[in-house]
Amino acid sequence: MKKILAKIGAIIEGVLAVAGWIMLVYFVILGIKQVGKILDKIQKKEELNPERWELAEKAYKEGKKLFWEKDFDKAIEKFTEAIELFPYHRFYYWRGKAYYYKGKLNKAIGDITKAIELNPSYFYYSERSKIFIQKGKYKKAIDDLTRAIYLSPDDVELFCRRGEIFRIKRDFDRAIEEITKAINIQKKKGLKVDSSFWRNCYSHVFYVYLRRGEFDKAIEVLIDAIRFSDDSLKSSLYEELLEIYLKKGDYEGAIEYFTKVILQSNSADGYYFRGRVYYEKGDYDRAIADFSKAIEIQRDNSEFYNWRGMAFFEKGLYKRAISDFTKAIMLKPLAEYYQNRGQVYQELGLYDKAEEDFREAKKREKEAEIEITKKSAEIEIEEEDWEMMAKVDSLIEKNEQLLRQFMKQFEEIETIYWFLKK
Questions:
Q1: Nearest to 145 by CA among 132, 135, 105, 202
Q2: How far apart are CA 135 and CA 144, in angstroms?
Q3: Which of 29, 159, 229, 416 has its CA 20 to 30 A from that of 277?
């Protein structure tokens, strides 16, 4: 009897195991079919008319080449050709981008909307939100960003952009709330605060508090940002922090903070910024001591020499001041350094040398203005976006190829799925 029961138990166990495997395969296939929907339209088209798809893809690739060459009119023609052969979401997206760079924002929105209808990805919602912001349609932009965040809840940029809209709308509390979410995601990911994240996101909270005159909260934001920032950003954040302390007139608070920086890292920046505080207090001896320590640690920083030169000048140590300004000029010939040295020469009655430095200062100022104008004309932000777009496009291409391979590997399981479905 026990043997019979054991056999029956084994049979039941076997049946359950088989049933379990069947169910597992069934649910795996359901998942695969969901993933497969991403390529459903394109796969159907390839199956029905592979030659037609190849022509569409060829036109699309030619369009992208023209797009990167910034020949937008011809790019639009090629993307349109691809769409007429097969209305694929990415073809609409790229034609929309071409319209965007032509300044035809409504047509761009129309094409990206069509891309969303075919494939409602967070990326397309995000891209459309940028155009809505540019058109001042903030409610529509917020709606798009909300949908994008639902699809990609850990994307820092989406929260930053939504926060920026609230800041523009002067809904400062909502702006702080959104950007704080972005900051927390960044920290959770273990990512450093770099110059891009500071400029495009983190700093918005800082400027909101500044606008409100809430200097203590602005200081808290800066100190927190410094804690999580990479080394390349720290110096500029220290500069912002110093300005707030000086605006508050809180010299002791600034000295206390930068002393902590020195004790923690013995950095040149710590000594330099504390020296700046002593300089503003009129304590030139301590300022000189700190600037000298900063120079000892980092001898190639022109600002360290410039500020020590200014402290020497205030103490009437003109030869030392000239020496430091000359060193600063050798490292970085800025108009400000020539101006400072010229003032020392003027104080000494060396008017020819002073005039020579003042002329050079004016010349350098004009050159700097021309350089700034040139950089503005190049639209550096657009170029950064250009590079980002290329990377994103390459990533999408690779992911699509991986999905195709994935689908092919499971063709046999797909057959089982249809068998089970019947």
A1: 132
A2: 14
A3: 229
Selection from 421, 330, 351, 357 nearest residue 30 by Cα: 421
Measure the CA angle with vertex 119, ends 116 and 123; round to 5°.
65
Q: How far apart are CA 148 and CA 157, in angstroms?
A: 11
Q: Which tokens hold the place of 300?
A: 């190639």
Q: Locate tokens 């020539």: which residue?
A: 338
Secondary structure class of 399 (helix, strand, coil): helix
More confident residue, 384 or 67: 67
Segment 57-69 shows an average pLDDT of 92
Using alpha carbons, select from 114, 121, 163 the residue that is nearest to residue 141: 163
Phi, psi of 193 (to 5 degrees): -85, 110
DSSP notation for 325-366: HHHHHHH---HHHHHHHHHHHHHTT-HHHHHHHHHHHHHHHH
Query: Counting beta carbons within 10 angstroms of the beta carbon of residue 88, is it exposed (0 to 12), middle (13 to 18) or buried (19 or more)?
Result: buried
Angle of helix 2-36 versus helix 411-421 axis, rounded to 10: 110
State how far Cα 117 lies from the chain centre.
28
Reading phi first (left if > 0) and then psi (alpha if -120 to 50, else beta), residue 267 is in beta
Provide the residue type at 70 as one letter: K
State both tokens at 339. 């101006």
Q: Identify the helix (H) or strand (E) that includes residue 104.
A: none
pLDDT for position 398: 53
- Could you count the other beta carbons within 10 Å of the beta carbon of residue 336? 18
Burial class (CB in 10 A: 0-12, 13-18, 19+), 395: exposed
pTM: 0.69
Measured between its terminal Cα atoms, the distance across the chain in Å is 40
Distance CA(145)–CA(127), nearest Å, equals: 9
Strand partners, 79: none
What's the CA angle centered on 141, arms 138 and 142, to 5 degrees?
Answer: 85
Longest CA–CA span in the chain (Å) reads 121
| Tokens 């200097």, residue located | 215
DSSP states of 59-79? HHHHHHHHHHTT-HHHHHHHH
